[in-house]
Amino acid sequence: MFSYLMPHRKEFFTLLAAHSDRVVAGANATLRLTNGLGLGSEDIPALVAEVNTHEKSADKIKSELIVLLHQSFTTPINRDQIHTLTIELDNVLNALQDVVNAVGMYSIKESTAEAREMAALGADACMRLNRAVIALPQKNRKAETINLCKEIDAIESQADRVQRKAITALFEGGVSVWWAMKMREFYSLQENVLDRCEDAAKTIEEILIENS
Amino acid sequence: MQHITISLWSLGLLIAVALAFDFMNGFHDGANSISTIVATGALTPKQAVAFAALFNFIALWVFQLKVAATIGKGTVDPTLVDHYVIFGALMGALAWNIITWYYGIPSSSSHALVGGLVGATVAKAGGLTPILWGGFGKILIFIIISPLVGFLIGGMLMVLVAWLFRNQSPHQASRWFNSGQLFAAAAYSLGHGGNDAQKTIGIVWLLLITAGVSTTDVSTLPMWVVYACYAAIAWGTYLGGWRIVKTMGTKITRLNAVSGSCASLGGAISLGLATLGGIPVSTTHTITGAIVGVGTAQDVRAVRWAVTFNLVIAWVLTVPAAGVIAAVFWYLGRGFL
To answer: Mean of the per-residue pLDDT values for chain B?
Structure first.
């Protein structure tokens, strides 16, 4: 009964939602970049710059959240879990940034069907992560949120399969060694995005279980 | 009023048992007030027990003997009480305390004492007529009310602190509570001493009334009784207070400087109000209520409800169980006292 009278500090959820919005924006830009590679339809440097901008903006939100943690007597959920979740959302954006920066670094001029599929899976996972973070404060949406986390887990497993298939295709086709090296690294960076989404989804699940 | 003849050794023995009961009360419960100040390092264990014992004793000058009066002349008809009844009451309460200690039930020694007194008197009278319902009824009602009042005040204090310090981290806020928790612990020790020592004063007073040494007028109560009872509880606290790990503060929910201060102060206010109103309440149950209130304000899941449930069992059982045991001891006591 007293918990209703305590200061509620909803700002934490607002900041986490804003943080996950940047993740979705970064994932969408990465998807457009991967799909547009070699087609000339997208301004690749502009998309790289866009992801970097989202990453910087997310960094600011993370700092603001950590400062707020130090200035709050009460937190709506466990203090450490808020900290962990914001760090994990940040890790997703850092992973997306690594993907887009690899395009310039390894001079990747065209995409593959598997790279496009991985990027689509990444965007899908980030979008579900965003929905899960937004639904986090609403206790009546717990089942739906846990479901979103399980879907992210399934998407990550699917991305694992796509990555294995992509690497097999690279070495079966007798392509150049340089191309195989570049794309192997690129796929692994793409897979890293999904892994980081899975980490964040697991934390959200833990929060929901602990607060049920 | 007709006085009974009590041999001096019987009188001395019963006063000694009563003081031993008082001492055990301090020994068991004294640590409740200091567990957090030791855990947070505000005082060393040695300083903390001396501190709590001192405030147990200072309560002597703070509260009037209203609780003692309720026990001594407001619970059962004093004219029906004799030294066998007092023996039965004290032994019933002691036996029940040992049983509950063995099974880990957080029983109240105060309720056991009242239950014992009523049980032995009823056994002697062979009926319920000697019970003064005005006083006994009040004690029964407050078995439920006192933890609830502790719960409400403890919880509200936590809410108040959370709003006052809402823009500081708990770590930053705890700096304000280094001296705050000393104040809260002092207040709690005052409340503990005031309410609990007076229960023994009430029993000894009753004994002196039956022996014709004193009357129901408070001015006839020898001051050495008051000093001895306050000294016994303070001494008990001093010797038993180091058993900090065994206190309610860690069993029910984890307390820090801030929540510990709120719980102690919540308990202290509740005890102080009861003592001013002359109502004997359980100090353990009151502080437990305050701890649960503070725990609920922070997080309902932080409260170990199983421990709290044991407390409810103790609420229901203590008075009748101690009463039945006291009746048996009243019967046995007639054989050798």
So the answer is: 85
A30, A97 Cβ separation under 8 angstroms: no
- Which one of B155, B162, B293 has the shortest CB-CB distance to A74? B162
CB contact under 8 A, B169 and A5: no
Q: What is the mean pLDDT of chain A?
A: 93
Q: ipTM, 2 decimals?
A: 0.72
Q: Which residues of A touch B298 (CB under 8 A)?
A: 3, 6, 74
Question: DSSP H helical segments within B241-304, as ranges?
Answer: 248-251, 257-276, 283-298
Judge whether B202 and B68 are in contact, CB under 8 Å. yes
Separation between Cα atoms, residue B59 and residue A141, nearest integer Å: 54
- Model confidence pLDDT, tens digit, residues B277-290: 999 998 888 888 88
Q: What is the pTM of this model?
A: 0.79
A2: nearest CA partner in chain B = B297
Nearest CA in chain B to A79: B169
Inter-chain touch B169–A71, beta carbons under 8 Å: yes
Q: What is the pLDDT of residues B205-260, one digit of tens each?
A: 988 888 888 887 888 888 999 999 999 999 988 887 666 444 455 555 667 788 88
